Amino acid sequence: MKPIQVGLLGIGTVGSGVFNVLQRNQEEIRRRAGRGIEITMVADLDVERARAAVGAGIQVVNDARAIIANPDIDIVIELIGGYGIARALVLEAIAAGKHVVTANKALLAVHGTEIFAAASAKGVMVAFEAAVAGGIPIIKALREGLTANRIQWIAGIINGTTNFILSEMRSKGLDFDVVLKEAQRLGYAEADPTFDIEGVDAAHKVTLMSAIAFGIPVQFDKAYVEGITKLGAADIKYAEQLGYRIKLLGITKRADKGIELRVHPSLVPSKRLIANVEGAMNAVVVQGDAVGTTLYYGKGAGSEPTASAVIADLVDIARLHTADPEHRVPHLAFQANTLTDAMGTLPLLPMSEVVTSYYLRLRVADQAGVLAKVTGLLAEAGISIDAMLQREADEVGGEGSTQTDLIILTHETREGTMDAVLAQMQALPTVLAPITRIRKEELN
What we know:
Blueprint: E1 4-9, H1 13-24, H2 26-33, E2 37-43, H3 47-54, E3 59-61, H4 64-69, E4 75-78, H5 85-95, E5 99-102, H6 105-122, E6 126-127, H7 138-145, E7 151-157, H8 160-172, H9 176-186, H10 194-197, H11 200-214, E8 224-225, H12 233-241, E9 244-255, E10 258-269, E11 281-288, E12 292-299, H13 303-320, H14 339-345, E13 355-365, H15 370-380, E14 385-390, H16 393-397, E15 403-410, E16 413-414, H17 415-426, E17 436-440
Parallel strand pairs: 1-2, 1-4, 2-3, 4-5, 5-6, 8-10, 10-17
Antiparallel strand pairs: 7-9, 7-11, 9-10, 11-12, 13-15, 13-16, 13-17, 14-15
């Protein structure tokens, strides 16, 4: 059978990795796919750099639309990134009858519903294993390996930059700003790290996993997103003393009234495997009713780890290229005509309706009656205390200090209830600084 021909849009870090791995392992890949897979055309604005990357024999152009217009190209790999031109090119490729492979989580999280609908109507595939957790095959696990399960929840460390920062803060006792500068110096964080440190990148990824896990449309605009910029070294130290580590988690969960979709720092028990994922590594925990708890761990970024996922998608398409579109694995695991119904039966819950437990740190006046007042407000709201830690004043502010830190771990309560209690606590004259609130996830 003649090789399937691929056009590559963008040959930066990931694109060059895809080209190199495909060249290096072409015989192994051909044996698995049942036919050859060849990149025959590359589009990049920097034509000279692209030619240097792919060598002779590959057509290099500076116009992506030349690839889309080429009738010999079967699959288009989109590695440009962003929401703008990438969206236009992906939709044009679909309209031209091309299958699409993309690592663009931002594009799919925001415009996925439109893109998947267009692909279904045209009978082509859009594959995106590389869009979530780099080289970890989590999309394939959710779409295929766990298809017998009613997924109950997913929790993932799915941004390597923030996990590196939190790991360094914990191991070295440094504050966020100091570690961010070091992460930028080492190349773990971008010059503008906003998408990473504010949780947006993780939210894009967990939005896609949520849609696949629960058969709901892609709804990034309804996700709750909170980053790590307000975390201090003190909170990481106190969490450790209480038997927890702080991780930025992407969480999606099936609840009684709908689906939770949220990204925020979380206290995780130190004994959990995911709590011990350090540095820039990624990990995802999936809880299914039949399989129980499963853990997926590996590199979430990088040239060849991401290329591994892109090429896995190419192989899938090569295998299914001639198959009846009605009998391929659906883009979001569930048949497309069932997703609209799911919007009504499984709405995304507002954060005020989420039920979880909490870590609270209050900087308070070191005087009698403060603890009783704070715990009294929690009791009045029906929030029970799991554990408590009160520091000596001189540990917090030095000798002669009149302030201390009060750390409280609560049992589960509704977020809206906690919001109301925190407002009451903050209004107390003996609470001397903004209260730190971090959600706690036991991940049982």
